[in-house]
Amino acid sequence: MVCGGFACSKNALCALNVVYMTDVINASWWVMSNKTRDELERSFDCCGLFNLTTLYQQDYDFCTAICKNQSPTCQMCGEKFLKHSDEALKILGGVGLFFSFTEILGVWLAMRFRNQKDPRANPSAFL
């Protein structure tokens, strides 16, 4: 699908967002230290990032999450990270919309009331 100008559909933008988030998560996963990966796997109760490379099996073998002991397969951390980041971005979008609308309201109120005359002022005064 080719997107040009404002012709992009909501689904295309959402798919682009998921692809971008997958790339960001994938790039940051391989930069992390093993200790940080272990802490994330334990706190999110998942193993490995995405099943995209041969390194996934190595990640899965060294996983210390609780789910690995309870069941033969664990959910991949990449899926949980995407779900968590999607929820966080929705909340941040709502907060951003709230503040943008209050700012627009403030600008409208400032333009509406800025040139009003003071009723207590002397009417014969120039300023």
TrEMBL record:
<keyword id="KW-1133">Transmembrane helix</keyword>
<feature type="transmembrane region" description="Helical">
    <location>
        <begin position="12"/>
        <end position="32"/>
    </location>
</feature>
<keyword id="KW-0472">Membrane</keyword>
<keyword id="KW-0812">Transmembrane</keyword>
<protein>
    <submittedName>
        <fullName>Tetraspanin 31</fullName>
    </submittedName>
</protein>
<feature type="transmembrane region" description="Helical">
    <location>
        <begin position="91"/>
        <end position="111"/>
    </location>
</feature>
